[in-house]
Design brief:
Layout: E1 11-15, H1 21-29, E2 35-39, H2 44-50, E3 54-57, H3 76-83, E4 86-90, H4 92-100, E5 104-120, E6 136-149, E7 155-160, E8 165-170, E9 175-178, H5 190-201, H6 210-224, E10 231-235, H7 239-252, E11 256-262, H8 270-281, E12 286-290, H9 292-299, H10 305-331, E13 337-339, H11 344-350, E14 380-382, H12 390-399, H13 404-407, H14 430-447, E15 456-470, E16 473-486, E17 494-495
Parallel strand pairs: 1-2, 1-3, 3-4, 4-9, 10-11, 10-13, 11-12, 13-14
Antiparallel strand pairs: 5-6, 5-7, 7-8, 8-9, 15-16, 16-17
Helix pairs in contact: 6-7, 6-12, 7-12, 9-10
């Protein structure tokens, strides 16, 4: 999805480290407007190259007074004023505007956290359209500093019940600021404000559709992959890699070569189920490799979870490497590209928030995608989903005719059941028990009509034994745990209330 293709309507979010930043991106996309999130300390060129029509400065945990507090680049204010770009600062982003445009921010006498009532005090700049002076609403606050003096031309349009500045506007310079977070559900009228700001104040039009994303991506893939180039893709049996492969297959046909590896750590009847979908429904060219013996022999006796992930990754790469070499012999030419189902949350997780002092994110998924491919493979990456969230990928899959039941499948981790058996996965019949328990759990949820309400449900084989009664005998045997979580886009999660 080349940024230039959607530039006239792009809403760009500069991320200053708020835990809610990704929500701003999601909320704006739900209004059919394309939005992207980049680091708040990105260069001016990175911003100008994207040519946005609106820029939102996110919240963050820092104080604008702190040494090395993250900030937009030099020349930013001149650039947005010269090009007529609208700027909305949220929380830290609002304080940044105040401080950089000549106002003053100080440590708040009364720091505001959590739900709070604000009141509209002035009809200026149209920020609270349809609201009268004196109208109140509940919002979510999260700040210790406050604006004590506004830059010239700015007016306070809403105050908190404690008298703090809650919203400001300077329509002449196209700068607006909110001290609260409109993007969270705890600000019930926040979506209405974002909608009004984008469509009525900024005159953005709602024209971003998943069909456009599909057509744009197909165009990009065709432009990238030469007429004689071949592409390989590792299918995990999950939604992301399947949708990515289906999209590439639509663009280049059978010059795509897929591999599905059964590592012995899959769910109940997983191999036959997913291969059926790949071949019967999607007509994807897939080679199935059963390497369960190879994986399980390497994992024997290994209990450290990180070590297990590394072994699985290494084994997978050696099989993938062999597949690529066999393909080269068969085709008489080396494959040039590798398809990966990287999603936007993966990209965000890989980019640390500014001011964190980190050059990359914490080790969240050391197994993620195909990290550490052999250097001599020199494959160029095709990541057609890297700007999409999980629910958007499912929508794209529906357009590509991927079966709905497959798209609705709960996510399954790359290392499979290895991460659901703490300890040695090869011990006793833990894998077999877990497969059967998991199948019973999932089928029960489906029969109960609640499968689609749950983001991910799964069983865990616990590394403990417990007492029970079977028949008339007291027994001492293994225990399993059943887990179910809810999530909208895989960025935040909560437990499912059965």
């Amino acid at each position: 999805m080349e940024a230039q293709a959607v530039k006239s309507n792009l809403v760009l979010i500069l991320d200053y480290g708020s835990q809610y930043t990704h929500l701003i991106t999601r909320r704006i996309r739900s209004l059919s407007v394309f939005s992207l999130c980049i680091s708040g300390t990105s260069s001016l060129k990175s911003i100008t190259d994207l040519n946005p029509s609106v820029i939102i400065l996110s919240g963050g945990p820092h104080s604008v007074h702190a040494q090395d507090a993250p900030c937009f680049p030099d020349g930013f204010v001149e650039y947005v004023e010269k090009t007529g770009i609208f700027v909305l600062g949220i929380c830290y982003g609002f304080q940044l505007i105040v401080q950089k445009l000549g106002g003053q921010v100080a440590i708040g006498e009364k720091q505001e956290y959590g739900r709070m009532t604000i009141e509209v005090v002035k009809d200026y700049g149209g920020l609270f359209k349809g609201k009268n002076i004196g109208d109140k609403q509940v919002v979510w606050m999260s700040h210790g500093d406050e604006a004590v003096k506004l830059p010239a031309g700015f007016e306070v349009v809403a105050r908190s019940e404690q008298g703090g500045v809650a919203a400001v506007a300077n329509p002449g310079r196209r700068f607006y600021g909110l001290q609260y977070h409109p993007e969270v559900t705890h600000s019930p009228e926040g979506m209405e404000l974002l909608r009004h700001f984008l469509f009525d104040i900024c005159d953005v039009s709602a024209g971003w559709k998943m069909e456009d994303v599909m057509e744009e991506e197909i165009k990009v893939i065709k432009g990238m992959v030469g007429p004689d180039d071949h592409v390989i893709c590792a299918l995990s049996g999950g939604v992301d890699s399947t949708v990515a492969a289906t999209l590439v297959h639509k663009a280049i046909g059978d010059r795509l070569h897929c591999i599905f590896v059964d590592n012995g750590l899959l769910r109940y009847k997983e191999q036959e189920r997913v291969m059926g979908t790949f071949e019967r429904d999607l007509h994807l060219p897939v080679t199935c490799v059963d390497a369960s013996v190879q994986f399980l022999s390497e994992l024997k006796g290994v209990t450290d979870p990180e070590k297990k992930r590394k072994i699985i990754g290494k084994e997978f790469i050696s099989i993938f490497d062999a597949f690529a070499h066999d393909l080269e012999k068969k085709l008489g030419t080396k494959p040039s590209y590798l398809v990966q189902g990287t999603l936007y949350p993966d990209v965000i997780e890989s980019c640390p928030p500014p001011g964190s002092g980190r050059t990359h994110s914490h080790t969240i998924k050391s197994h993620h995608n195909v990290g550490g491919l052999p250097k001599d493979m020199k494959l160029k990456l095709i990541e057609p989903l890297k700007l999409l969230f999980k629910d958007e990928v499912r929508e794209l899959g529906r357009i590509l005719d991927v079966p709905v039941a497959f798209l609705k499948r709960h996510p399954f981790p790359g290392p499979g059941l290895a991460v659901r058996i703490p300890g040695d996965v090869t011990q006793g019949n833990a894998l077999e028990i877990l497969r059967q328990v998991d199948e019973i759990f999932i089928q029960a949820i489906k029969e109960g009509g609640i499968y689609d309400e749950i983001w991910q449900a799964f069983a865990v084989f616990l590394p403990i034994k417990t007492t029970g009664v079977q028949g008339d005998q007291r027994t001492h045997s293994n225990a399993v745990a059943l887990r179910a979580v809810t999530s909208q886009d895989g960025m935040t999660a909560d437990w499912y209330y059965f």
